[in-house]
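INTERNAL AUDIT FORM
Audit reference: QA-55
Scope: verify that the stored structure record matches its stored sequence.
Auditor: D.O.
Record contents follow.
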Amino acid sequence: MPSPTVQILDPASDVTREELARLSQVYAFPEFVKQADITRTMTPENVAVTTYADPVRNKYACHTAAATWLSGLYFHEKKAEYHPKDRSRIEQRLEHYADYWRIRPAYEKIVKRANDLATQELPDSAYAYVWADERGGKERFLPLTSTQNIKAAAEWLQEYQDSLPFRDRNVIAKKILEKASATGASFGTELNQFVEKQAGHGIPDPHEIAQMLAQRAKLCKSAEHRDQIQQLAETVRGQSRMSLQPDQLVKLAETVDMIDRAINLNGKYTDTIKRPEDVIFKVTYTKAASDRDALCTLQTGNIYEKDQLAKLAKEDIQALFGNDFAAEVSRGLEVDPEKMAAIAETLPRPDAELLEQMLAEAGQQPQFGKSAIDDAISQKELEEIAALYDNTGT
């Protein structure tokens, strides 16, 4: 729905007729519009609310054939300002009145001309989703030309997430975030978290991924597919957090999405059986950044919670880094996590690696990090599993 701060221009609100003059230079007005009483056509009086294409806002009056044509003209010039759901509803009402007044051919010319102009004026990058068919045809959806449109695109993506494969959602979400960053568009914490996960901007807990995969394996009817998913689950289970690279995580999300659609799980998620992206991208980048005050990032690229540093023994630090270092990071006989974190983040890589060895001996593993380990899931393995579910059942 349009923002209350945005004035949607329709014939009645075009008091100065400046927009009408501009549109007359761009569109060919049919004779029945040229011959109509312009005042009665553009500023209707005492007409029923049901004669408006947008009765919620009393806009786009359709009380005559000429009024319907002009309302269609103004609407298709400004429809990007509307939420996709409202846009569809208004278009349906305009089509109804175009048929009622028997001006459908003239109305269709407006639609074609408006679409042609939009295509000429905006590049593909201005749309969240561009679909091309095998014959070279192209359709563009969800314009991202204003902060309101960007938010509307995010809301549309959330509403129709179960109707789109993750691969498409990922493309759309990345464009939404890119435009939001460039324009300063904001759509609230909850919706932003959703879009980030669709874009693959998040950090997982491999153990939870393994549990998610094990759930899917149990739901498979094919023994071959079940065994391969279970094997994938075991591969993930032994990894440290963020051991997968971002492109691998996105591919994993695509694969699980295919599995869910094949086993008829898509759209039937619960608190127990979660959406793949809610697990694979559990902690979004924005959330991780907001928590950074509680984290310590070493030069190795691995990230620990500061409280983990307090698990180290002062005497072990003394033995490895010397008395002065130990005194500087301690409070009495205990290691001070804040002091330790402040210095740990500045340690050169060789010293940071020694510190990580000490943390590992104390049972402390990184929460997440930048480097992949040797047994990370290969892109080839993910593609092979995904291929099993591409256009096939279980």
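Auditor finding: record pair retrieved intact. Strands lie at 52-54, 59-61, 127-132, 138-143, 202-203, 283-284, 295-297, 303-305, 330-331, 334-335.
Action required: none
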